[in-house]
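Task card 7
Instruction: Convert sequence to structure tokens.
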Amino acid sequence: MSRSAVLWLADWPLTAADVPADEPVAVLRGDRVLASTPEARRQGVRRGLRRRQAQTRCPELRLVEDDPMRDARRFEPVVATVLDLVPATQVLRPGLVVSSTRGPARIHGGEVAFVDRLRSVVDAGLVDGAPTSRVGVADTCAVAILAARRASPTLHVDPGGDADFCAPLPVEALREMVDHDPAHALRGHTRYADTSMEEFIAGVRRLGITTLGALAVLPRRSIADRFGETGRRAHLLARGDDPHRLAPQDLVEDLQVRRELDPPAEHAEAVAFATRRTAEDLLHELARRGLVCRVVAITVETEHGERLERHWRSSDGFDAPTLVERLRWQLDGWLSAPVTSGEPHPTGGICLVELSAVEVLRGGRQLTLSSGPSDEQRRAYQAVTRLEGLLGPDHVFAAREQGGRGPGSWVVTVPWEQRETFVAAPRPWPGRIPPPAPATIPTTPTNVELCDETGGIVAVSARGEISAPPARVRAGSSGGWIRVVSWSGPWLADERWWERGGRRVARLQIVDDTGVARLLVVESGRWAMEARYD
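Output:
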């Protein structure tokens, strides 16, 4: 079995953004820190921290928004350099590639000589100030990633020694082994798993299991019964027995889809949009056969007859949004390469795109009895796809539920392509009103007056005590009074109290004698209608 060599360029998002290493800077994805400079880490800024936590630890921290397209575009010359040395190279993500050592080790005089040669050619092409490369070599790709992250600058795990290398490491190392995509790692989410990796790590910690060695000696059946598929895979990883090795494990047959573009396209977004349905057809056929695609070959041909190809790898298997995202990254890297750089560069429009499932494994997702979406779902998806074609992918959104106290913050819109990967932050929300959710939420709350039987304005104390039962309500100061027949609450909420614009409010539900239910909110003694129940 061929061994895996993983080349890692630490903090690649910072390198791609041309950030000086001696300044406190962090790359932010959403509300989480994705990468930070050594100076920022010295002040306590770590990956996974929320924006406000990072700024509290380092007040002078400069934040840079994450740009995956930029990362892939800047990483393309590095991949081309590695491919000149090792043709059988797969990209895990920008900043991380994996190669087989079998052939290159024979050519360069052994595994150590090959790794030294690999590092030298990559470091020679890096810009000044970029961190030097690190290489880890092991029997499996997952353990090679661990070795690369701990290399200085290289680390070779002895053949057959993956389990011994993993044994003393903490169980938190599973985060690095399971998911190569930092976005998934921050969410603690793994595809095709009934329990997230974060939940698994917390669970085994509570059982007193702190190292991978302690996890490896437990019965696999017991771990799988307790934690499902995530536990089974984690147990294999802890033993250094990852079934997802670099070499194909269960290659049934070559699956390939093609899309011809007429007229030829010259922009990455246009090509990615045109081939999205093609990518979905490939993955749907794989799912129908019970297969998962872990390595895909992206091949394009131009109107001048040029043919470019690159392999991308996903630790948990590709889904449609991930595959289209990798296609867009790769096309942007090819199309943006200067002609004088010597890197692969299309000189004409792209007229053909091929997607090939290079490595497939048994164990796909369970389909419905109809083996696919319904006709209504297909028509709805076609309508959304049409809108994306007219407006662009950044102008079509899907609604997703998230945390929050007020009804206006319960639902957030996310780009359509990210609808399946969006994960709301799990947290308690003290002061949140109970279900059901109101049906109508006006853009601007309507000012109202809420009075008791004596005509006095109803007030809510800092302890959540109401001054008197509400008896009548009216909109503004000129509307007619409506009698209140029932009410519930109030619910106190301190919203964003740590910011200058924070607010302390109380919410109250009322039902008037016309049968209409409303959600009222009081702030600084003034009442407003925040939502209405239908």
